[in-house]
């Protein structure tokens, strides 16, 4: 991205310290009616200059004169669980699409502020995907025109910052930052024909160090001395940044600070199209990492692989993680359960007080929480539900911190920040290995299963299905709720169908229709299939089917093979092919 900025500036770099008069400034940075789009490129130039400037560079701009531009509402701007995601062309072919969205965010911020409130400071960052540079410029114009709402934009050098780092930054009191606008579509691919999105967590431009607060948060949580010693003894971690925002953070912390060698890193330079890869850390899209760790696309041993003690990947914006060892893939649900069980090996911040998982995740962590006497919560998919639990004490309730949480879609985190954090999960597993250096990842997982039993688990993703058909399938399943069932003979007996609803114990808010749960008995053992529609796609509907079967005695099977029959039965009951026309999933993990 830095090369693009340099090329754009060209000869204008010589005018970096030449600013317009106060009259010109007022014309560019203010508005009278909303929404407003300044007509000059001065804001864009200032933004590009600051992306290249030293960390101390900042700018103050007065505002009096105002201009407005009429617009109409868009009916397709309802955000999903992680912001608004659309195909890139939606954003590039109609500039007003972005302008309206940002103006809406600012209007909401303004409506929640008292008349005497001072303007806010906002962090503006991206995961580096295609269209980030012009979008940062475009958003800076709208924010600058709303100087009664926004006083300062904080922009990381080159505009790239991982989502966990953004969360850490805005939660640090010393930054006086009220919210964040993050340009990301997370694990979705990037490029002109791919996806783009805007996530809201929550003028003048200030260049900020994206590492400082984040590194401090991790140093407070983990024993960096232990991890440095582990690295110095020749132990190796294979870290795949997938050409996303997490790459530079992985190299900074794992490499520069902890001392893991250069050959431990792959694809850690952010690229607009993520190097042509789909930046979703799973067995399908993390193929090269998985193969180098001695696994195939189904998570089975290949008998090959390189000499790394731990393999890990982050997604496009650095908040998701894949964990594996040589010849073993750790499902997100098992990873969460292992971290809960070995919490004392990871953190010196006190005993674990609360754990939570998303409903589609396996119940592996539930068993650990019960044995340890830790409060356990099952929430809908969406990190905001975990955030409420972390904030319980601040809202006058019980404290659940230190708090651990995770979701089935490769997201893991804790109360160190209020966001899922891919690198945090990597450091958690590195800490487990550093505490018991004689153990491999496979040893750790096998010991866990012997202690608690194994939850075989798999997820089937059917991407870009027709929305009408997907919704009809869910209505079909909802129609089975309350029926007396003993459907299917032999090995697979359907006992119950229910729609998952959640009452937040902190806010008392009720969230209904969060997925359909089909409970089975499989050869006498409990099992289930879960169907839900994902809110993280950019087009159509993504149907996700989650399969889970508990076994307290046999741990040596491959999850996809062990669950194949259950999946076939669930697909038949849901009539998935009939409603969606899809015979095969896009991805199985």
From TrEMBL:
InterPro entries in alphabetical order: A-D-PHexomutase_a/b/a-I, A-D-PHexomutase_a/b/a-I/II/III, A-D-PHexomutase_a/b/a-II, A-D-PHexomutase_a/b/a-III, A-D-PHexomutase_C_sf, A-D-PHexomutase_CS, Alpha-D-phosphohexomutase_SF, PGM
Phosphoprotein in keyword set: yes
EC number from the UniProt entry: 5.4.2.2
The reaction(s) this protein catalyses: alpha-D-glucose 1-phosphate = alpha-D-glucose 6-phosphate
Domain of life of the source: Eukaryota
GO molecular function, one term: phosphoglucomutase activity
Entry keyword set: Isomerase, Magnesium, Metal-binding, Phosphoprotein
GO biological process: carbohydrate metabolic process
Family: Belongs to the phosphohexose mutase family.
Protein name: phosphoglucomutase (alpha-D-glucose-1,6-bisphosphate-dependent)
Organism: Triparma retinervis
